[in-house]
Amino acid sequence: MKGKHIEDASGADYLVANLIGKLYQMKDNVAGQIFDFATENISRIINCSFVVVFTEANKEISEGRFFLSEPFLFSDFKKGNNQLLNWFTGQINPEVSNRIENTTSPVNFRFSELEQEINIQNYLLTSTEDTNQNRIHLIAVNKKNGFTTNDLLIGELIVDALKNLFELRRSYVSQKELLSTVQKHEENEKRLRNYFQLGLLGMAITSLDKGWIEVNDTICDFLGYSRDELMSKTWAELTHHDDIDLDVSLFESVLKGEREGYKIDKRFICKNGEIIYSELSVNCVRDDAGKVKYFLALINDITERKKAEWALKEAILRAEESDRLKTEFLNNMSHEVRTPMNGIIGFSSLLDDPGVSEAKRKYYTQIIQNSSHKLLQVIDDILEISTLETKQLRLNESSFCLNDLLMELFSIFDLDSKKRNIPIYLKKQLKDKDSYIVSDKEKIYKVLHNLLTNALKFTNQGYVELGYVVSKENLKLYVKDTGIGISEESKDRIFKRFSQESSEMSQKYGGLGLGLSISKENAELLGGDVTFISEKGTGSTFYLTIPYKADTERVSPKEVEDIIHDNTTDKLTILIAEDEEVNFLFLEALMEDYRHDQIRLIHARNGKEALEHCKENNKIDLVLMDIKMPIMNGHEATKEIKNIHPDLPVVAQSAYSASTDKKLAHEYGCDDFIVKPVDKNELYTILKKYTLNSSES
């Protein structure tokens, strides 16, 4: 018996080995093929008729195979207590029995066909369960000598072998499917990565928290980050602050399921701080449940396209602006030419009237002359613009006294400023003898004349100041006013030809809008520039900055150095409180003749300014105080100054010379009195009297 058992067991092993070899050749209907192969080979071990049955977990028996070594005697099969046998014997009907009894080959059947109950007494039943709770059964019948314990052992080996084969096949199929899936995934990933790195577009996969999962080289290139640097940031951090709200809002609407994607133009901030414009397309990828897994973003750098669009728009705007300015210029030209021409022609005809009085004749003549000068100015401006355009102007440098040039301009505009009650002040850093420079006097005059004309034209209250400051390399002349100022949006075009701040201003104040353009171009010819600072409603200061070239034949290098560094050691400091600029300039000229190299002058335009200077400067040696001044008169200012500096000499100057006026001045604290117009010798006597100790001790 023992030898027989071993032999049969070896047959079972052989069966398993053959089944494993067969296993990897199987394709579809694996279970059926295993059954077919098993039933063909089990008969070599078990010399009888048998059936192999497969039962799925929690289901009815799904499939079976018969092997008949001889006619299957259903009449010998007896219904027993086993559940499987009860089922089996309850399914057989005569029709199937007849089909089975006539063959010794394996027969397929469905158990639903076996309806008639049969009796077979001689049988063997064994079964096993796999890890998925599927069961495999072996039922053997019609063994001539009956079944032994060894047959049961062999049956158990057979069903265990079949169970292992099913599990092995399942694992093999799963691994094969997994391998196929991995291969497909690798192929797809390779295709996706190749598409990613084409470089045609910036491509990225982003997470639900706005991070980067994957980026291509194109994104890294136009943002200026390495891949590792970019992966450490979120796309929200790199989005321009004006675009972030829209981008995040659309992003969140995708997360909520309100849309599948979106497309916008947005700006990114590069690593170097530059801004690039992009066309962004975003779509989401969802799982089987519909939840967003990640986002796919396509980013197209459209910065150059945007620049081209802006350039085109700018060109169109410039063309439209040029057309508008030309139209406005022609209208202004018509107005600026016709207005003086009307005055010239109209009043010339009135001069022919024999009944016109001599006074009116002089009045009409003055109008004609003024109109002629105005017309000549318009013509000069147009001719100069034409000359500047053709680059025909050349520098004509010579040596001249800068102070004399400014005094000439001051004299011209002082009369007009008095008519308008807008005082004009002159500030000179250098003494007359030190103010000789080498440059083009005519062009400097032209620029300053234009700047002063504008300053007076656009100033309704306050003052205008003309002056200069010398540094080692530059001479900075300036015209300051307290006029209407220039708005921020007009500052970029104020020097353009035919431009004024607005058409309403052109209508209100007149002019062709050429003055500043001419000034700037002349300044550039001088090797300098015209610049300005201005605030709307508070006034403007225009600067003409040119190279400072002192006339070294008149001013020694040592004097130039002293001028630049304002060497005031041992100089007398005299404060002149005077609201009339002409009077101040006269006193300044007298001071230069007296001791030009030892006196430093400070100009206060009213009593309040004089008081402020005395509060801030304790080195003032003498105050020349005009009595009649705006804001605070000389009496009040002297009283306040004496409270601060009781020993500071204050000399009153006034056109009123009565004894009562002198007495009143002394009562307010004045130390002495000088009558206007100031006599030179009397002034020098006063200066010696009150500055002798300071200057000659």
Question: Which helices and strands appear, and what pairs or packs with what?
Answer:
Blueprint: H1 2-23, H2 30-42, E1 49-55, E2 61-67, H3 83-89, H4 94-101, E3 107-108, E4 123-129, E5 135-141, H5 149-196, E6 202-206, E7 212-215, H6 217-223, H7 227-231, H8 244-255, E8 261-269, E9 275-286, E10 292-301, H9 303-351, H10 358-389, E11 398-401, H11 402-419, E12 424-427, E13 436-439, H12 441-457, E14 464-470, E15 474-481, H13 503-509, H14 515-525, E16 529-535, E17 539-547, H15 557-565, E18 572-577, H16 581-595, E19 599-604, H17 607-616, E20 622-626, H18 634-644, E21 650-654, H19 659-667, E22 672-675, H20 680-696
Parallel strand pairs: 12-14, 18-19, 18-20, 20-21, 21-22
Antiparallel strand pairs: 1-2, 1-5, 2-3, 4-5, 6-7, 6-10, 8-9, 9-10, 11-13, 14-15, 15-17, 16-17
Write a brief caption for the model:
With 697 residues, this protein is an alpha+beta fold. Strands 3-2-1-5-4 form a five-stranded antiparallel beta sheet, with helices on one face. It has a five-stranded antiparallel beta sheet with strand order 7-6-10-9-8, with helices on both faces. A five-stranded mixed beta sheet has the order 12-14-15-17-16, covered by helices on one side. Helix 11 runs parallel beside helix 12 (441-457) and helix 12 packs antiparallel against helix 14 (515-525).
Question: Would you write up a description of this structure?
Answer:
This protein is α+β, with helices and mostly antiparallel strands and 697 residues long. Helices cover 47% and strands 20% of the residues. The strands form 5 sheets. A 5-stranded antiparallel β-sheet has the order 3-2-1-5-4, with helices on one face. Helix 11 packs parallel to helix 12. The radius of gyration is 57 Å and the shape is elongated. The model is unreliable at 1-10, 65-87, 89-121 and 506-510 (pLDDT under 50).
